[in-house]
Amino acid sequence: MELRSSAAVAPATRPAVPSHHGSTTSFALRFTGYLYAVGLRDALADLLARHEVLRPARPAGADPASGAQVEPTLVPHPITTAESPAAITEFLDGELSGPIAARSFRLLGDPADLDALPEHVLVLALHRRAAYRLPPPQLARDLMTAYASRRRNLPPNWAVRRLDGHLHVHELHSVQLYQPAPAVFDYLAPLGAAV
Q1: What is the pLDDT of residue 123?
Q2: CA neighbours closer than 13 Å in the CB half-sphere of residue 75
Q3: Parallel, antiparallel, or unpaired: how do β-strands 172-178 and 24-33 relate?
C-alpha cells in the first residue's frame, strides 16, 4: 500500500510458496524508505514483552525475575538483490533457538541511481504454535505500531486502534507483508535482473 507520509502493513498479492520446515512458518516485511534500525530493534523487543507466546520458555522452577530477557539484534545485513534469495533461504533453513527469529537485510541498489529509495527486508521465522496464537498479519501490525512509537522515542500505546490502518512514519514510503517469507523472491527477481 502506497502511503503519503505514513507506513501501513498491506498484504501482498503474491503466490504462496511452501515453507521450508514443517514446524515453522515465516513472513517478510519489505520497507521502502529510510529505516531506523534501532527503532526496529526496540519495536521487536516491545513485541517480545507484549506477547508471551514469542518469549522462550523458562526452565521449570526458574524465577521469572532472574530469567534473562531476549535482546533482539537486528543489524541490517547488506546484500545485493541477486544474493537475497540465497541469504534469506539460508536464514530460514537455520534452526530456531526460540519461538521467533528475525534478520534484517539492506538491499544494495544501483549506485548510479541517486534518487532511489533504500529497500530493507525484515524476515521473521516463528514456530507454528506461536503463529497459530499470533497470526503474522497481527504480528506485523503490532510491530509497525511499536516501530512508529519508537521512532518518536515513545513506548508503544497498544490501546490505540487506527481505523484506516495508517501509521505516521515520515521516512517510510511503504511497508509490504509477504507470507510466507520466500514470496518476497517474486518481488526481488525483477530487481535482480535490472541490476
Answers
A1: 93
A2: 0
A3: antiparallel
